[in-house]
Amino acid sequence: MQENRAVIRLDRIRANAQYFLSRAHGAKLCAVVKADAYGHGAPAVAQALAGTAGSFAVALVEEGAQLRHAGIAEDILVLCPPLSEEDVVRGARHRLIFTVADASDYALLARTCERYGLCVSCHIKVNTGMNRFGFDGDGFSRFLAGALSGCVRVEGIYSHFYRPENAEVTGQQFELFQTYCAAAERAFGSLVRHIAATGGALASPEYCLDMVRIGIGLYGYLPAGFSLPAGEIRPALSVFSTVACAREYRGGGAGYGGYRPKGKDLCVVRAGYADGFFRGQAEGNSLCMDARVAEAKYRKYDEICIFSDADAYARRHGTISYEALVNVGRRAVKEYVNGESGG
User: E strands, 2-91, where?
Assistant: First the structure.
């Protein structure tokens, strides 16, 4: 077929999730399935993790709604704060948990809920050093001292390590986070506390608290600065493409530009940058929008694996595994398997 085939090993995702649960020291697992589960397909991944993950995290309200339509009943935390009344109404309809990262986020939730007769839940995001989303100290104190709405239930508090591999920086962040947690729990009572994503969960059992948010680790990869013995977690995604043409080099280039092949055997693989692959360091400009001219000897119609190791691919292209994973399955037909079948 013309489409590429993305084979996703659900058994590996489940095994990876179990591994991180074993490292969580009693904390619950929040499976991060934003960006279509890092390119693996959020509905299928979430369904596969039913009974293992206690909750899920997405970036956008629309992603949460997609999970509800797929039958996911567990809590779903939306990591990006709402930006409009439409976000709030849609999120409330699908029983999503919102992020409140400053006083205006809370005001938007309260105002919308009061206008439409809604009640919603939220987790508070505090800034401990990443400076992306989150209350800062003075603003948080003013928020806690202000009027609060009975329509908005505060159920959790969280932050994010920006250098989990650095023990000193992470320790300072964690100490600050505990200060925020103490102030919040004086105002709201007991809350679900979470700061550790994949790196944080590996950095120290102390950081696991009530819940760990595992994203990249579910899919078989680790943040920079961390390593595990081979086989502890395993990649779940491979992408296959079809050889659309096999030929001998007859002079000229190989794709756009002035690159000259070193040998005579060429093939054209039906995968290009419109499929999410990167031009960056391909030889010459051999990667085109919908195809790549490669120096290899294959037969026409052969199916070949063109992606199976996001770390190695990212190193070749000067990026990170996260960016590779969310791109390379674009325009691919997803095939879910348990075990070695399917490629």
Answer: 5-9, 28-32, 55-58, 75-78
Domain range for 295 is 237-337
Sign of the CA dihedral running 7, 10, 15, 20: positive
Active site residues: 34, 256
> What CA–CA distance (Å, rounded) separates 137 from 177?
11
Same domain, 152 and 192: yes
Instruction: For residue 215, give the CATH number of its domain.
Output: 3.20.20.10
Residue ending a domain, among 219, 247, 278, is 219
* Tens-place pLDDT, residues 260-282: 888 899 999 999 999 999 986 55
Q: What would the pLDDT profile of 30-65 be if each residue is shown by its tens digit?
A: 999 999 999 999 999 999 999 999 999 999 999 999
Q: Using DSSP, how many helices (H) and how many strands (E) does the chain show?
A: 11, 14
Token digits for 78?
A: 């939306």
